[in-house]
Amino acid sequence: MSDSHGTYFIPEPSRWPLVGSLALFISFIGGGMMLNGSGFGTFILGLGIGAVIYMFCGWFADVIGESLAGNYNKQVDISFRWGMSWFIFSEVMFFAAFFGALFYIRVFSVPWLGGEGSGFTTNAFLWPDFKAVWPLLMTPDMTLLDDKGLPLASSFVPIKGIIPAFDIPAINTAILLASGATVTFAHWALQKDNRAGLCWWLAATVLLGFIFVYFQIAEYAHAYHDLDLTMNSGVYGSTFFMLTGFHGFHVTMGAMMLLVILIRAMKGHFSRQDHFAFEGVAWYWHFVDVVWLGLFVFVYWL
Description:
Layout: H1 16-35, H2 39-68, H3 74-113, H4 122-125, E1 138-140, E2 156-158, H5 168-191, H6 195-225, H7 234-266, H8 276-301
Antiparallel strand pairs: 1-2
Helix pairs in contact: 1-2, 3-7, 3-8, 5-6, 5-8, 6-7, 7-8
């Protein structure tokens, strides 16, 4: 409902936050059970994911209905823009923490373990045979110890290899940069009330987004089956899958949001003056592009 002056829309109480919280709780329980070897955990996880999808569909439908009913005025639009800006800022901090962890590992932890640094004796006390190289291709096996409880030289098990930067990562970089251009062209078309151009450029962006996800899945399969690079492959494997995995999740979510926006554009929901839903998703997509450039440089290339 609106207030007495009709200046700001206040929605009715919604069940979707409660549904979303329960869905996420079920998903986490199912995921934990699955990781601990419970066959029933897969069913619980699937149930939770299904509930999350139901929540998204229902909540999106309500918000879209409110927008089409003309309930959102300029002040509501400003609120949405601030909300999306703070959300993207929180995502920046989210990835900044992971990039910070990568920086600390590469610049401080690994060199200290290798004996570098004035006054540090970490290497002598922990792993005398440790070689400070990056990417860290040798993982200490703590099950192989000498009589002093230190890892044996033979316990540093080498990983077969790493993902070369100028292979699938370079292709995915080109794909995401192209998608950033296509979503910008879609925005220009929208500002000119060119509905056909908007839909075609959006469709191209959605296609490029899912192609990126496909190539990342292929990259993961290659890493696991051909290179023995897994999440258990020492600190390099952990940081690699943590950063690229979370980014891949964001790309998947972004592509799905763009698909929703494409369907809405095909139905004529947006105009030159009223299209924040498109802009919000476009902001998010550009953020995903920028994060990938950082990943390509610091995870794959350097």
